Amino acid sequence: MDAAERRALVEAAAAAATTAVAAVQRNGNRVFSNGAVRPDRFPSNQCPTWVQWRRHFLCVMDANGWNDEEALNALPVCFTGWAMDEYAAVPAELKTRIVGLDDPSIEALVEYLDPILEPNMNPKLGRQEFRSLLQNTEESVRDFARRVRAVGERVNANRPAEVRDEKNIEQFIGGLWDPELQELIMRDAFQTLAEAVERATALDAAARVSRSKQKRRNPNMARGINEDPTLVDSSQAVPTLPEQ
Which residues of the chain have pLDDT under 70? Predict the structure, then answer.
């Protein structure tokens, strides 16, 4: 490719970028022209939760008489900070018209964003919550796994399914309260969280059976009493009265 061809490609790219910017400006001017009501920013003090802001935005959409295309143009202008980052990860076909695919709609876009923005938390805080999940001593393996999956699917909603499973498996194993169970399950490799849960459940059941057998062989262990009668705590002994 000679210099003239390279210059032509650069000029064409610049022209395309200029056209795109102009289109966004025209869309914005059209959407917010003629005294149109402007929605609040999200997140904002006026509408701190996604549920509140979504309701507010749809009311503004109706008040302005926007169609789907106009609402789709107005929506990203309202996002700030982490909400804008989440919007940037939305598939293109939900935001703009693509030849050969169904036209995007504000309803489909909002439905996609619901599980991502509904928790109303900074993604960083969401990830911190996910990494802090620990199994309670009275919580079953399966119940803990359900809790991990619920938070993990919410926090990592915009990631591929295989990445979500990988993160869920990692947190599930790391959050188990029994270190012996952790050590055993870490020896295996799992493709899905379901596989890890099945293996952990089986190992946990086997450990419970083993502990139960030990208690039956040694009843004193079940009561927390040492087998050696000479080591009984003298403070717990019943005092004897002197003979009259």
Answer: 1-35, 45, 119-124, 219-244
Q: How far apart are CA 103 and CA 93, in angstroms?
A: 8
DSSP one-letter code for 171: H
pLDDT of residue 81: 78
Tell me, what DSSP letter sits at residue 65? Answer: T
DSSP 8-state secondary structure symbol assigned to residue 132: T
- Side chain identity at residue 191, one-letter code: Q
pTM above 0.70, yes or no: no
Longest dimension (CA), the chain: 123
| C-beta of residue 171 within 8 angstroms of C-beta of residue 127 | no
Dist CA 130 CA 147 (whole Å):
10
Output the CA–CA distances (angstroms, integers) from residue 218 to 140, 201, 206, 210, 211, in the order listed: 26, 26, 19, 12, 11
For helices 50-64 and 68-78, what crossing angle results, to 10°? Answer: 140
Integer CA distances (angstroms), 217 to 104, 139, 166, 206, 226, in order: 69, 27, 41, 17, 14
Percent of the chain with pLDDT over 90: 32
32 with 74: CB under 8 angstroms? yes
- Between the alpha carbon of residue 197 and those of residues 83, 147, 152, 201, the distances in Å are 33, 12, 15, 6
Q: Which residues pair with 42 in a beta bridge?
A: 79
Under 8 Å between Cβ of 96 and 104:
yes
DSSP line for 87-108: HHTS-GGGTS--TTSPPP-HHH
* Helix/strand/coil for 42: strand
